[in-house]
Design goal:
heterodimer; A: alpha/beta; Rossmann fold; 2 domains; four-stranded antiparallel sheet; about 40% helix; globular; B: mainly alpha; two-stranded antiparallel ribbon; 11 helices; 2 strands; disordered N terminus
Chain lengths: ~325, ~280
């Protein structure tokens, strides 16, 4: 049975339109104008137990709004959702005890106190039996390698250490579903990798389902087999990460290495130069024309090495985002 | 390790009540980490008291009156000391502004995501804050009262003591639920600072914190005694001084309880309506 089942979910916000200037500000006191914003415009998907699903989309695409609806913080304007057998926005106690939402930009730990004290508060909030609590804290601190930092005030921890503590705090009640909104935001690469590793480990050992949004392609690549791409509130892709390139990547990157000073001056005629470093050039070439272009180049120039690759995933996705934006603009024109 | 998620047992209501008591304990530990803040704020609280004392000394000296609105010189000073104790229980610094800030910044989320009720959590937290505050300021207040012991010419009997304590505890409730209800304004207003400023300034006078309500003209004093604010300062102090007794005392306590309960219902109602609005528009 699916752990998350979303059908045609939509959220429209009413946003207050502030008038320009002083006069406008005064007018705004009396009469307010609102604009309707379709943050999420009808998405449907389901998530099976144990999956890690990535949510990709540009800023304002509706990722966080969707997570908020799934965690019961806001009501949808339309559509339905069932999470862990509950309607999330009814906020049943039983539901709230089974999931956790971690937001990379918000902290829930007491700033001036050691993380341990915040953990103890969580023990009370979730009524976790002491023996279970001790065991869980032991396991988690070992896994995240922060055992020695438990007694340090949170404000004295590094950003990465703090994020680990945040994650531990959210896992204490052993949620079956973990919603992660930008869990690695602002972290250095080392900390990012450790957090990815821990999340993956936790997923395999506990079978916990995870849904995460991230701006870092690396997070998604490291964690998610399946991704949902959302732009302008609409789901444009739902499938394996690798499938994105097949579906949206119309170009290939042709990597050519010439002799020193051997780069043809008219290289542009074969395709757009994606990257150029000394005698090596990466050309962006339409998939259908790769063979043709290669033949032409090899025919006329001396090439030392050649390979054909997919463009980097984040570029493909950026392209998907841009197309979504163009389509949205066209639809609204 | 095989895949496993452990389903935690759903707590009984006794455990739920126990939960908030334990939160109180944990919060108490938190509050006690700010020891220095306590001592400084306790000391600073005595400063305005000193100026008020000097003012009343001057008023009595220059007017030559034995009594002002039924208060002798000694009783006036005793009253001013006693309202400090009332306010120790009933003042809720930062409660309303904290709630509205949580609403605006989205920190309200934690109460929606976790199996915890915001108002019940805040009252546990505030209770811990008060216990810590009262415990740490007992010594300086003890010294202050000892110093002015001759101003208290009659010590209250056991019944009065009991009524006094009850009025203080209910004063805590009245103060808490009033501030909580005001904090809920944050669901509708982006900025509540000026609203709170007006309320707190007014409160200083209409609660009797500044001077006994009886000094005002009888109509106004009568009106103010119909409002819940007198229970934050005036009412407990008057009980201790023995100026409210017998049936009047019993009625007063009953009305105070009604206010505490009414404000409890009001804050709950506003929270529920506010949450519905919050979930519909924001987040």
């Amino acid at each position: 049975m699916a752990i998350v089942e979303v059908r045609d979910l939509a959220k429209t916000y009413r946003v207050f339109q502030k008038k320009e200037g002083l006069f406008g500000a005064f007018r705004g006191l009396v009469r307010r104008e609102y604009k309707e914003v379709n943050a999420v415009a009808g998405v449907s998907f389901s998530v099976e137990p144990g999956e890690i699903v990535g949510f990709l989309g540009p800023n304002g695409a509706g990722k966080t709004t969707t997570l908020k609806m799934l965690s019961g913080l806001i009501y949808p304007s339309h559509g339905s959702a069932e999470v862990l057998g509950h309607v999330p926005w009814e906020r049943a106690d039983a539901f709230r005890r089974k999931f956790a939402l971690v937001m990379g930009q918000k902290n829930q730990l007491w700033w001036d106190l050691p993380a341990q004290d915040s953990f103890r508060l969580h023990r009370e909030i979730y009524s976790i039996p002491p023996d279970v609590f001790d065991r869980t804290v032991g396991d988690l601190t070992e896994m995240f390698e922060v055992g020695s930092l438990l007694r340090q005030p949170v404000r004295e921890l590094s950003l990465g250490e703090r994020m680990k503590m945040e994650l531990i705090a959210s896992l204490l009640h052993q949620p079956q579903l973990l919603l992660l909104d930008e869990p690695t935001i602002g972290l250095d690469v080392v900390a990012q990798v450790t957090i990815q590793k821990c999340l993956r480990e936790y997923n395999t050992s506990r079978g916990v389902t995870m849904l995460l949004t991230s701006h870092y392609m690396r997070d998604v690549e490291a964690l998610c087999k399946r991704v949902l791409v959302i732009t302008h509130g609409k789901l444009v892709y739902d499938g394996p990460l690798s499938g994105i390139t097949e579906q949206f990547g119309r170009d290939k990157l042709v990597h050519l290495q010439f002799e020193a000073d051997g780069v043809p001056t008219d290289i542009e005629r074969y395709g757009a130069v994606f990257e150029r470093e000394g005698p090596t050039v990466d050309l962006r070439v339409d998939r259908a024309k790769v063979a043709e272009v290669l033949a032409a180049v090899l025919d006329r120039h001396t090439v030392l090495d050649v390979s054909v690759q997919d463009p980097p995933l984040d570029q493909v996705i950026a392209r998907v985002f841009e197309e979504g934006k163009a389509r949205h603009a066209a639809a609204n024109a | 390790m095989p895949p496993q998620t452990l389903e935690l047992p759903v707590p009984t209501w006794q455990q739920s009540v126990g939960k908030y008591l334990k939160i109180l304990r944990v919060s108490l530990i938190e509050r006690l980490t700010y020891r220095a803040d306590f001592f400084v704020s306790t000391f600073l609280r005595f400063l305005p008291l000193l100026t008020t004392f000097l003012l009343w000394e001057a008023v009595f000296a220059s007017s030559g009156a034995k009594e002002i609105s039924g208060f002798s010189h000694d009783q006036m000073l005793a009253y001013l000391l006693l309202v400090q104790i009332s306010r120790m229980f009933s003042s809720m610094p930062g409660l309303a502004s904290g709630i509205s800030r949580d609403i605006r910044d989205g920190n309200l989320k934690k109460y929606l995501l976790q199996p915890i009720d915001m108002i019940a959590y805040l009252i546990s937290y505030r209770g811990a804050h008060k216990i810590a505050y009262i415990a740490t300021s007992a010594a300086p207040y003890g010294i202050l009262f000892f110093f002015f012991r001759d101003k208290f010419n009659v010590m209250p009997d056991l019944t009065t003591w009991a009524a006094y304590l009850a009025s203080l505890l209910m004063g805590f409730m009245v103060g808490f639920f009033f501030e909580a209800a005001v904090g809920m304004a944050g669901f509708w207003l982006l900025e509540v600072t000026s609203l709170l400023y007006i309320i707190h300034t007014l409160n200083f006078i209409i609660s009797g914190h500044m001077f006994p309500l009886d000094l005002l003209n009888p109509a106004l004093a009568g009106f103010l005694k119909l409002l819940p604010f007198q229970y934050l300062a005036y009412f407990p102090a008057m009980i201790f001084l023995g100026k409210i007794q017998g049936q009047e005392l019993a009625n007063g306590l009953a009305v105070e309880f009604a206010w505490a309960f009414g404000l409890f219902l009001t804050s709950r109602y506003l929270y529920r309506v506010g949450l519905r609005r919050y979930s519909a528009y924001g987040g």
